[in-house]
Every structure is written in C-alpha cells, then in structure tokens.
Amino acid sequence: QLQLVESGGGLVQPGGSLRLSCAASGFTSDYYGIGWFRQAPGREREGVSCIDGSSGSTKYADSVKGRFTISRDNAKNTVYLQMNSLKPEDTAVYYCARIRGLCVLWSRGYDYWGQGTQVTVSS
CB within 8 A of 13, min separation 6: which ones? Predict the structure, then answer.
C-alpha cells in the first residue's frame, strides 16, 4: 500500500528547531521527488521545499532559505525537513507529497500526499 506518513511536528518557541520526517512505503522514494508543503488557517497551501529523487537537487521557498534543510535517507525511504530559527509565521500543517520527475514548489503534479503534521511556533 502506497503511503506517506509525516511526523515530528509539535509546539516550539520562536527561534527553536524541529525535524519533520516523511516516511514512504509502497514505493521506492529515491525514484521520485518529495515535496514539503504547508497550509496555515485561512491561507493557501504553500510549497516549502523539495528534493529530486534522481539527482538529490533541492529547492526552497524564499521564506525558508537559510533556515530549513531538506534531506533524504534512501535506506530508510524517508525524507527529512530540518527547521531551524522557527518563526510564528511558520505555524501551519506541514504535508509531504510525491512527484514523478523533477520536484517543484507548486502542488500540481504531486500524486500522493500524507495526512499532515501540525507545527506551532509560539511563546
């Protein structure tokens, strides 16, 4: 059964860090790009970062460059999103999704999505 499962969300103070995980099953994630998206209440879903399956090339939204790092462990079929220097505006539900071919920071082309994990940045 093809599945993407996010974990690692939670409540953190501004300036803190979290590491999100996206565990893939039912397919080999290194043949697909994986993207991280987020959606805050009342806002549109936003592409945060993505990593290509073949080359491992990465992309980041301007709002997270220098603070977030995406990586993958093919042996564990898992993609990570390390989030540092978190800000209140990073508060959202974070989703991972799968795409064939090169990854992009818009949702078109992603065919499977996880259920999401809540990240709340607040003092």
Answer: 121, 122, 123
Strand bridging mode 110-113 / 46-51: unpaired
User: Tokens at residue 101, please?
Assistant: 């071919």
Helix, strand, coil percent content, the chain, rounded in steps of 5: 5, 50, 45
Q: What is the pLDDT of residue 29?
A: 66
The residue behind tokens 């990586």 is 71
**Residue located via tokens 């949702």:** 107
Tokens found for residue 89? 């505006």
Say if residues 77 and 24 touch (Cβ distance below 8 Å): yes
For the chain, residues with pLDDT lower than 50 are none
Between CA 98 and CA 122 the distance in angstroms is 30
